[in-house]
Design a protein that fits this description.
about 55% strand, 3 helices
Length: about 140
């Protein structure tokens, strides 16, 4: 499954970068995030509850920030399992500043399997896009 999006922040790239890489802010903005604990440099253990249609699954996930180019881009890698399901994904996050505003572009690809994928396959694209939109809307508020 591929999901992409573009989000405009009313802040310079340095401020947006700070928000995008701050674990406390991230955990408060990730929909369904119950926990986000550092386990290494730019690596976190997370507990996430994801709902797809009538199915709710609690995932234990590892999240890593890789290939960082400060104030410009990074790769986000996620791998999780729970409730007889799994999810693996990567997203490329790119920041472009213009006239004091920063556009954050996201290109992601993921695979899911197990109960959630089997039951909610037709809903997964819309749930993924909605989750991404909620996450970035929350982060946009944090930069104000």
């Amino acid at each position: 499954m591929k999901v992409s999006g573009s989000y405009v922040f009313d802040a310079p790239a340095a401020r947006v970068w700070q928000v995008l890489t701050e674990p406390t802010l991230l955990s408060g903005c990730i929909p369904g995030c119950d926990r986000l604990d550092p386990i290494g440099e730019d690596e976190y253990q997370a507990v996430l509850t994801v709902a797809v249609g009538p199915i709710r699954v609690r995932y234990d996930a590892t999240i890593a920030i890789q290939e960082k180019v400060p104030h410009q881009s990074y790769r986000l890698v996620v791998s999780g399992t729970g409730g007889g399901s799994f999810v693996n994904g990567e997203a490329m996050i790119t920041l472009v500043e213009k006239s004091g505003k920063t556009t954050v572009s996201v290109e992601s690809a993921s695979q899911a399997g197990g109960t959630v994928a089997w039951v909610g396959q037709s809903l997964m694209d819309s749930v993924a896009k909605s989750t991404m939109d909620k996450f970035f809307s929350c982060l946009q508020q944090a930069t104000r």
